[in-house]
Amino acid sequence: MDFAATKRMFELPEGMVYLDGNSLGPLPRAAAGRVARTVEAEWGEMLITAWNKAGWMAQPRELGDRIGRLIGAEPGSVVLGDTLSIKVYQALAAALALNPGRRKVLSDRGNFPTDLYMAEGLISALDKGHELVTVAPEEVASHIDDDLAVLMLTEVDYRTGRKHDMAALTRAAHAVGALVIWDLAHSAGALPVDLAGVQADFAVGCTYKFLNGGPGAPAFIYVNPRHADTARPALSGWLGHEAPFAFDLAYRPGEGVERMRVGTPPVIQMAALDAALDIWDGVDMQALRDRAIALSERFIEGVEAACDGLTLASPRDPEARGSQVSFRFEEGYAAMQALIDRGVIGDFRAPDIMRFGITPLYIDEADIDRAVKVIAEVMEHRLWDRPDYRERAAVT
Ligand SMILES: Cc1ncc(COP(=O)(O)O)c(C=O)c1O
Ligand SMILES: Nc1c(O)cccc1C(=O)C[C@H](N)C(=O)O
């Protein structure tokens, strides 16, 4: 894999080391032109005929298949649309309907809050006595029992980068008759995923992080082919109908994963994502993973050798991590502001986690070494120790 070539495919501001692609990927160079073409030559020239002529209507499935290759999904089992929060709701609603005799939904306390909020909202809307149980991540396996309806987990923890064993947990849940939903927000484009191999029931994920589809890029949902024609989409919008343009008054779910579509797809966002996926089409996920591990190990070794104050919050075993490295430091918020001011972009998650995404498509050894040097300077000279850093407002 020529990662120097993939790096040239991104706009990266001069002098910046961008270690936040686990939250928002950078701009693929081709994206601006692709978006402009969609706006000018398609929307501008073709107007409504572009839904057919420019293939807008088919894009949620076509782009879904390109993402499907990266996550080991069967062709035709992934579709794009909406936000990840909405796709979590849809997947859980469909899974609960496929397991009507049981009431327990199991997740872990490291899960991203929106997944848990959506589960609570769905449970209260259903009003059938379901219960969301959240346990410590390492205790998930021991809470898989005969009451379990659905196991709903995010594979890679957004704070620590700790990775669940997707194959083992899926097997354990299936052995007790439960269904499994994987949130791949921090996995898609970060590491190899084998949805078909592990026989996951549903998976969901976003495209604005490691996949570099841009802010607000649509989410995706995977439905295992064995459920594709029986899963109830829950959000029964017209574009998930079997024949949307028949305008029937009665809802009939579409064929296969198409039924998970809800409403009008975000065409301009999909244009940006299309350009991002052109880069991914040439990527071997195992080669990417190997390089991510090598870069992460270099980063951890460098930081640990140079900085006393930072404690590794991610698993030390690279196989047990996703593609991010996190350190704990009680003044982590201020330290991250000091790094950002010096061109090293990571982020902070309360109470004390400094998070760095390792993304080999555009991060190389020189970037890692530069980041280590700047982190060492900030720590050694207490450059974080400024009231304005502690008080600086940030939403992300
Ligand atoms: C695991 C996980 N689920 C969901 C989301 C967010 O979902 P949405 O795209 O709806 O904002 C994130 C990050 O924003 C996430 O990390
Ligand atoms: N989705 C985000 C957004 O709309 C704004 C700011 C950040 C995000 C994120 O993706 C946060 C991310 N899921 C996290 O791991 O913390």
Automatic annotation (TrEMBL):
Enzyme Commission number(s) of this protein: 3.7.1.3
Domain of life: Bacteria
The protein's annotated pathway: Amino-acid degradation; L-kynurenine degradation; L-alanine and anthranilate from L-kynurenine: step 1/1; Cofactor biosynthesis; NAD(+) biosynthesis; quinolinate from L-kynurenine: step 2/3
Residue stretches spanning the membrane: none
Gene3D superfamilies: Aspartate Aminotransferase, domain 1 (3.90.1150.10), Type I PLP-dependent aspartate aminotransferase-like (Major domain) (3.40.640.10)
Hydrolase keyword on record: yes
Keywords for the protein's UniProt record, in alphabetical order: Hydrolase, Pyridine nucleotide biosynthesis, Pyridoxal phosphate
NCBIfam families, per the entry: kynureninase (TIGR01814)
Record-stated family: Belongs to the kynureninase family.
Assembly, per entry: Homodimer.
Entry protein name: Kynureninase
